[in-house]
Amino acid sequence: MLAAVGALGAVSELQAQDVYYSQPYATRLHLNPAFTGLLDDFSATLAYRNQYPTLIGTLQSSQLAADYRFRDQRSALGLLVNADRGGGLNLTRLEAGFTYAYRTRLAQDLYASAGAHAAYGSQRINYGNLLFGDQLDADGNSTGPSAEPVELYDPKRYLTLGAGGLLYSSQAWFGLAAHHLNQPLIGYATGAKLPVRLAAHGGYKYYFVRSSVKQQYREVSLAPTAAYTYQGGSQRAEVGLYGTSTPLILGVLWRGALPGPGKAQQSLVTLLGLAWNGFRFGYSYDVSLSRFSREVGGAHELTLCLEKIDLLEAAKRRLRRKNYAAPPCPTF
């Protein structure tokens, strides 16, 4: 989530953190650029997250992601746009950029994908919500506009770079990603920056049923997953279990901070996904396990994905033995 602005000039170093989506594989380009183009020939996904809905200045995040796989089946290009807003000062961050990934087959049932991400961002606060000392009279009443120079709060623009890798087979996957490698300055205090975000994620899928009849794919499976994220001194862990029975996906995840800053933030996520006629719809709710979070509400998250796979071209690739399998990770 966005870091609180708090003391705009009173702290010597202020660090922001990224949003943690509860449907990491629906927002997989945000998780790891190496996922670009791996699941579909083309896809476009909209995601919306509303955290602490009963709190004034609720934290809201929106994301648009799209990826396109080139005909060589090895390279793909993606678009990723994130918009975050929250806090009493209406702190907003808009970030837009591209991802690129290239994959290769290492063995009969082993693939690797490497990806990169570059984005341009802007962060600002709504200084119209601020009240300065020269606006108050002796009785503490507001007297009118301030003479404070507002250019101090002009948007902070920055470039951010990231990279990631993914290793997968027909039943397992493991990925590493590093975001904000250049640690861009984004804030109003000296040294206010986006710290590097390091992430590891993986899982295993056990298939009870896996078949394709008349171009209709059917799957019944269970997939345990795990993830770890480190950013700015904060560590987060996640373990989950996804059950799939086409076209439904049910999931439950535990998410929490490891010993260190923010260790009280823990939640249990319940997830429901539905795939139908080229669309994927997902809804999840974070049930807060900490007292503060319970009092201000959990988090709602919605995702909608349009996916396209060229079945005729996929059949031709199988005949030419140039078909590249998709990773077995969940789609939500």
UniProtKB/TrEMBL annotation:
This is Type IX secretion system membrane protein PorP/SprF. It comes from Solirubrum puertoriconensis.
